[in-house]
Structure formats: C-alpha cells, structure tokens
Amino acid sequence: MQAAVRWLVAVVGSILAFAVVAVPWAMLSKGGDDPWDVIGPVAGVVAAGVLAALSWWASQAGGDGSRRVRQSARGGGRIRQTAGSQGAGAGSGGAAVREDVRQKARSDGTGDIDQVGGNRS
To answer: For residues 23 and 21, what is the distance between their CA atoms, to the nearest angstrom?
Structure first.
C-alpha cells in the first residue's frame, strides 16, 4: 500500500510541476501565434525531471524484500558469523521481510565464536 501511495505522489507531483511552469508562463505571454510551441516542451522537461526524482524516491519503498546487514569480526581465533539467514518454511510466503541486523564478534585469539543473528529457520 505504501508503495502505491509513493507512486501516486510521484505522478501527481510531475503533473503539478508541469502546471506550475506552464500556467503562469501562458498567462504572462502576450502575442505570438502559439506560445504553447515553447511552453509545452519546456514544462514537459521540468515535469520529466520531477518525475525522475520522485520515481527514484518511490522505488525506495522497501518492498523488494532487501535486508540491511552489517557485520564485523576481530580476533585470532575461529570466528563464524551468519546474519539474516532464512531457513526453509520460515517467514510468510513471499512477503517482504524488513530486517536490520547488526553483529559484532571479538576473540582474544584463544576461543571460538559462532554467532547467528536474524535467523528465521
């Protein structure tokens, strides 16, 4: 739902950008056979730029199921980290999963560290 609203805002914003450029220009221009020969393309370029920017914003809605995972490991021992893994049958079939997993592991060189974060199995 949120993605649809963002795309609607992108389209409406583009239309408004066209109107903001074209309407005042058309009202202020006097004479000439057809000022829309110039006004239309210029307003169209502005609207396309606004649409491009808002389309990028709309596509960032997070509906692609991507996860953000940050990991760091230090030490001389064995360090094994797993983050954001999803096992068989876990989660809700095909639904977008929003996770933010942050893991840190440290070893003084004598021990082993086995760390799992965000495991959905």
So the answer is: 6
Name the token pair of 98: 């929003």
CB atoms near residue 26 (< 10 Å): 13
Q: Phi and psi dihedrals of 100, rounded to 5?
A: -135, 100
**CB under 8 Å, gap of 24 or more: what pairs does 12-15 form?**
13/50, 13/51, 13/54, 14/47, 14/48, 14/50, 14/51, 14/54, 15/47
Q: Chain centroid to CA 69: how far?
A: 16
Give the mean pLDDT per block of 10 residues along the chain (121 residues).
88 97 88 79 96 92 60 69 58 54 69 65 52
103 in Cβ contact with 81 (< 8 Å): yes
